[in-house]
Amino acid sequence: MKRGHAVGETAPRRRPSEGGYAKGAETREKIIEAAFGVFAEETYLGASTRRIAAQAGVNPPALQYYFDSKEGLHRACGQALVERLMGDFASVLQEARAALESGQRATMIEAVCELMDRLADLMMPRAQDENWRRFLGRCQTHHQGPAYDLIEREFSAPLRELVTALVAGALGTKAEDTQTRLHAVLVLGQLSSLQVGADLTLNTLGWPDFAGDRAALIKKTFRDHVVRLLTAPLADPATAPPRTRR
User: Fold this and answer.
1) Number of CB atoms found within 10 A of residue 123's CB
2) How far is Cα 160 from Cα 31, in angstroms, rounded to an integer?
3) DSSP string covering 86-122, please?
């Protein structure tokens, strides 16, 4: 006769084979990739977990098994995206921090330009766009779901603060000054033409996409704007000429 387990004692779980672990990780990744696409298309609030399951080729209960809820799945997408971004940006972020510590104006301006180049690569839609890029754009434009909060906290906000510090160093101002922060906002605001305003930008320029030489021209123009903004003398609001009424 087999002995039972005492009350409150957890029965030992059978250790799945190595193949079972691999299959579970593969299924989890498949669900996340499908969720990127559905969340990007329908937003966090509008997305159907049944559709995500169908896109991933799994039964709906699998989503609850791996992620507990739609909220958990959205958060998992955000975490996967942050890990990917931090990996892609690791070297340029390290160089930007080193530039800030150097205190050299030209080095800090170049660091801002390099960050803009990398962000432009991230934001520009591709002919065959990856779902995670579209998911990031949706999070940043709709501000919905736990993934948005996670991406904002772990990636976007620290990046803005780093750019603001570099702008302040290049201009010889303080990072907390309103005008300094406005300059940083305007530097980063150029990227909206590639993300939120991508269709309008393409229509205005008569371009089919941002591929090849067109992408290079966009990045060069962004760089020119950054250099001009950070090398021009700051205007003193106190000495600005008064506006004339019509």
Assistant:
1) 21
2) 31
3) HHHHHHHHHHHHHHHHHT-HHHHHHHHHHHHHHHHHH
Neighbouring CB atoms inside 10 A of 166's CB total 26
Contact assessment for residue 32 and residue 77, using Cβ atoms and an 8 Å cutoff: yes
Element (H, E) at 133: helix 131-142
- What is the amino acid identity at position 210? F
Give dist(CA 226, CA 229) in Å, integer: 5
Q: Angle CA(207)–CA(208)–CA(210) in degrees, nearest 5?
A: 75
DSSP 198-218: HHHHHHHHT-S-S-HHHHHHH
Q: What is the pLDDT of residues 46-58, one digit of tens each?
A: 999 999 999 999 9
CA atoms within 13 A on the CB side of 91: 3
Residue of 212, 211, 188, 192 whose CA lies nearest to 201: 192
pTM recorded for the entire structure: 0.82
